[in-house]
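One thing: mind reviewing this one?
=====
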Amino acid sequence: MNSTGFIFDLDGVIVDTAKYHYLAWKKLANELGFEFTKEQNELFKGVSRKRCLEILLDIGNITATQEQFDTWMVEKNIDYLAYIEKMDASEILPDVPKILQFLKDKNIPIALGSASKNAKPILEKVNLLHYFDAIVDGNNVTKAKPDPEVFLIAAKQLGISANNCVVFEDAKAGIQAANAANMVSIGIGDSSILTAAKYNFKNFTEIDFSFLKTLLS
């Protein structure tokens, strides 16, 4: 039997850090004199910080010098880090530890594949770091999702071929990246948005062990 590797995105899959990103971007938008709504925040899902700031400035119709741009990028991250500093295990999304424990008990290789540059400290804060055999985040990749780079590096670090990997994602770009890497894509969240996913679940409470076993066989 071929070994199967499991790769998890972080934001919106394991923990809901999306709300903190939103609050930090909203704070910056307000400082710059305009509103930033939760609907507009949807555009930021699975997107790099640099690209997010470009979109934000477009929304506010603001032109910035390179120096201002760099300053705002840093400022946003400082605000975001202040929010995640307070995180604990209560922030883990429902049934995530149950799934991770099931895979761990079966010695299944597990990786994180995230655009976040703060993935490791977040996993430490919520006490899940020990489940992961590989962490691939914004510090290891040059291309953002929908480019499959993050997942291909994760597969390589797990020592598993790409087509034997399963990816859990909550963003459209992440599902596209998993499909481009020839991996089994599982959408966590709104199935009407994640239409390209091979399987869809609202959250991990809908995933049972028998489903995981079919992925392993």
User: Anything to note?
Assistant: The first strand starts at residue 5 and ends at 8.
